[in-house]
Amino acid sequence: MKARFVCISLFSATLLAQSTPPSLTIYNQNFAVVRDQIPLELKPGENQVNVNNITMHLEPDSVVLRDPTGKHTLQILEQNYRADAISEPLLLSLYEGKTIDFEVGNGQTVKGKIIRSGYTPPDYFQPYRGGQSYNNAAAQQPVIEVNGQLRFSMPGTPVFPSLTNDSILKPRLEWSLATDQAGSFPAEFSYVTGGMSWKTDYNLVAPDKGDIVDVVGWITIDNQTGKTFENARIKLMAGDVNKIQPEVAGQMGARLQEAAKAMDMRANVTEKAFDEFHLYTLERPSTLRDRETKQVEFIHADHVTARQIFIYDGANIDLNRYSGWAWENIRNDHSYGTESNSKIWVMREFVNSQANHLGIPLPKGRLRFYRRNDDGQIEFTGENVIDHTPRDETVRVYTGNAFDMTAERRRIDYVLESGKKSATESFEIKIRNHKKEAVKVRVVEHLYRSLTWEIASNSSEYKKTDANTIEFPVTIAPDGEKTVTYTAHYSW
Description:
This protein has 492 residues and is mainly β. The protein has five helices and 32 strands.
């Protein structure tokens, strides 16, 4: 390996640290763009440069290296990405065919020849591209010859004479760089890496009575890259960015890196639109250690109106039953749509607006709802997940089923007029309220037999919410019951 460096390099430098703190843009799809500044001291022509302080999930074909001042032209003639940091199994494989000492206890050693190490190179990208790593249990067993006998295990702890010339202690990039002139300068070094992710969680706390809640939003960053980022400037990109699998991600990585150069901004935990996505910047530089999960509060809003609503969507159609059926046969089936459930959904909805003390685009994440008991303690009352939500849009999530309310839905009439290509169908829905206060329930009905329909009769006022759905808003008295009936006429 030494001869290789002699024939291609005029100068060699090993870079172990950055001159300035790194900058990260983390995407909520388990990858990040890393931007570092590394010092270079180059001679004209070819230079051999090793960069050690990188992640173990770096995507090699996403690397961008340049002089930000434009004074030096840099060309990477050859790049080798080394992620096989030294370990006992790896070093054992490098000594295959050789005899070494093995400690067997009490200061005693025996000599053993390594016939097979059993080392299997790790596939660092496997968790991010869904591939299958090599896993042959037989080949993973070491074979050691001791006193002319073969063992399928190590006789003791191996004692290695020294590291081999091909050993590295950390992941490393080995570059053959060409430059047009000598000079010492900080170069801009960027790349895409896997093993970095972020997510959001929202906690909504309501008082013992009413719908005015306090909202606390947390950002959680997870670093599984194998590298610690000291005093890093951290940005978070929210949105559905198209990310190609690592083996073909070079061009995408370069475009992301170029786009990320324009993202520098200094503020509190703030948000701004960026292309078709949203970018959030943390207030101050932060150290993100390897294998660390870091949380930062990014929303704290008081007096947000988050109404609790009750919805009864009674139809419970078993789609598996109609698998393979033609639509005409489904539509004409006598029992289609008659299966029902008795649960009334509990929903929470709020408007993401400045008038409602919010108004910042909300990244997708989990919402947890709490309510204070009359003793002042908060109790968990449900949770769900929201998608990316722009400002001024309404968030509505399901949090569970009502305990003190039940419903009953049944069909009371059905006439299929085949010759006229029409049908008439009637339903009766009963809502019972066992609470000590009146409640409002939205009774949702789906007119599923045809796009052409009309309501021939109805016991309560309704509104049309889409082409196939109507909704009856009803109020049920304490310990009361409300009955809704309607008749729909279909034609096709």
